[in-house]
Amino acid sequence: MISTSLKLTISSLAICLTLSVSHLRSAAQNIVEPKDTPSDWSKPYAPFCIVGNVYYVGTYDLACYLIVTEKGNILINTGLANSEQIIGDNIKKLGFKLSDTKILLTTQAHYDHMGAMANIKKATGAKVLVNVNDAQVMKDGGSSDYALGNGVKTYAPLNPDGLLRDKALISLGSTRLVMLDHPGHTKGSCSYMLAVKDKAKTYKVLIANMPTIVTDKKFNEVDAYPNIEKDYARTLKAMKALSFDIWLASHANQFNLHQKHKPSAGYNPTAFVDKKGYEKALADLQRAFDKKVLGKPSN
Predict the structure, then answer these.
(1) Could you tell me if 79 and 56 are in contact, meaning their C-beta atoms sit under 8 angstroms apart?
(2) Is the pTM of this model over 0.85?
(3) pLDDT tens digits, residue range 171-193?
(4) Beta strand 169-172 with 175-181: parallel, antiparallel or unpaired?
(5) CA 67, CA 62: separation in Å to the nearest integer?
(6) How far apart are CA 107 and CA 208, in angstroms?
(7) Within 10 Å of residue 78's Cβ, how many Cβ atoms?
(8) From CA 255, how far away is CA 141, in angstroms rounded?
(9) Domains of the chain
């Protein structure tokens, strides 16, 4: 026969478990990743070596980069929430381990680049480093983003382990990355520059966050980001002045990945030596910026 006190204890535990499960479900339900995302964002893509110790491990369009060092690896961007399995599988196909990830970075704190980061951090124990100006958005799961937030979490909130400022140096093993502050797309969107050696030569590699405009409002209507116009102008000017050999970007379509590389192709870093393509992309973005500044009506 079960005593009254034991019954009460069991009952209390059951209530606690029910509340805990309800809390977890509620927390999960509070994250609303947009459903109308392009199919290419979730489509698997064969991983490959871009140059030296830099590998593409993302989806067909959401670019994620693995930088392999003798002291562990760096992962830049994590795609959507459902990209976690794709990224893990891609890293394994290349002969590496997701568990060897030591540093997690992002080019922007939007859900299509942050979706799987919290889970990957939990799985690996990697340190998350972020541009200080995107830290708050990362902490609140994108809900305070000036364009895409609207008070709704679009990915799992994450407390960064370190804050980066313009020209910050990120080191792991013999690899050194420089973070370049390129705000506008988000308040803390950024690019990374690093020197990469292979057997033939050393390449200066730019992993760029292209300053696409995400708001339909006029710049002077974006109350949550009063410096948006100045930041876009500064970023466009700074990016035009960069010197590099190879450039990559946050989305595969932004640097014409699928025209430069086919899954059956071998190692060919020179395919990504494309300064003209970079200049054209920036010229297109400059025109979009100028059109916005001239006062295109908001929707």
Answers:
(1) no
(2) yes
(3) 999 999 999 999 999 999 999 99
(4) antiparallel
(5) 16
(6) 8
(7) 27
(8) 27
(9) 36-293 (3.60.15.10)
